[in-house]
Specification:
The protein is α+β, with helices and mostly antiparallel strands. Among the domains are: about 90 residues, Conserved hypothetical protein from pyrococcus furiosus pfu- 392566-001, ParB domain; about 35 residues. Strand 5 and strand 6 form a beta hairpin. Helix 1 packs across helix 2. It is elongated and about 75 Å long.
C-alpha cells in the first residue's frame, strides 16, 4: 500500500510523542526553534502517523508549546507499517547528520548578513567573524602567521643513546597505529586530526 500524505492544522494537545523517540531536546534547542518560528513561521510541518503519534518534529511541538501556541501544522503519513514508523524516526535525523558544514561559506554568509542576531550562533562568534576579530577563546590570533620555533638545540642536548631509544620506542608505537584522517584549518592552515 502506498503511503498517503495529508497536511492540516491540528491542536497540539492531540499530538502524542513517540515513545521510542531517541532524540533529546535541550531547552537551548527548543528556544532556538521557537525563535525561528517567531521570525519565519512554522515552515516545516510536524510529521505524524494516522494516530497523531509524532514521528518527526518533537522539538518543533515543544517549541510551539513554549510559544504558547495551541495549534500546529502537521503532515499525516497514512499507510506506514510499524517498521517503517520506527525507521523514519531514526532515519530523519541520521540523514540530516550525513551532511557537513563548509565553515568558509558559513563565515561568508555571516559577513554578508552583517548582523549578530542569527539564531543558533553566539554573539561573540558572529561579532568576531563580522569584524574580522578572529582571536579564539584561548587568545590565539588567527590573522597572524604561526611563529616557527626550532627545537634543534633541545634535541642536540639529549644524549645520542637516549634519542635512539626514543626513536625505537616511537617506531614500535607508530607501527601499530592507523593513519589518522586530517584536514587543514581554514584560519591558520595547520593540520587538524579528525
Amino acid at each position: 500500500m502506498a503511503v498517503k500524505h495529508e497536511t492540516k492544522t491540528v491542536e497540539l494537545a492531540k499530538l502524542v510523542p513517540y515513545e521510542k523517540n531517541p532524540n533529546v531536546h535541550p531547552i537551548e534547542q527548543i528556544k532556538a526553534i521557537a525563535d525561528s518560528i517567531e521570525r519565519y513561521g512554522q515552515y516545516y510541518p510536524i510529521i505524524v502517523d494516522e494516530d497523531m503519534r509524532i514521528l518527526c518534529g518533537h522539538g518543533k511541538k515543544l517549541a510551539l508549546e513554549h510559544l504558547g501556541r495551541k495549534e500546529g501544522e502537521v503532515k499525516i503519513l497514512r499507510g506506514l507499517t510499524d517498521k517503517q514508523k520506527l525507521k523514519i524516526v531514526i532515519e530523519d535525523n541520521k540523514i540530516q547528520s550525513m551532511s557537513y558544514v563548509d565553515f568558509t561559506k558559513i563565515e561568508d554568509i555571516i559577513r554578508e548578513v552583517g548582523e549578530v542576531d542569527i539564531i543558533g550562533f553566539g554573539v561573540d562568534y558572529l561579532d568576531a567573524i563580522i569584524n574580522e576579530n578572529v582571536k579564539d577563546n584561548m587568545g590565539v590570533d588567527f590573522t597572524q602567521p604561526v611563529e616557527r620555533k626550532s627545537n634543534e638545540k633541545q634535541v642536540a642536548d639529549i644524549p645520542q643513546e637516549v634519542r635512539e631509544e626514543q626513536d625505537e620506542e616511537r617506531e614500535d608505537i607508530e607501527s601499530g597505529m592507523q593513519t589518522a584522517r586530517t584536514m587543514l584549518c581554514p584560519h591558520c592552515g595547520k593540520e587538524i586530526y579528525i
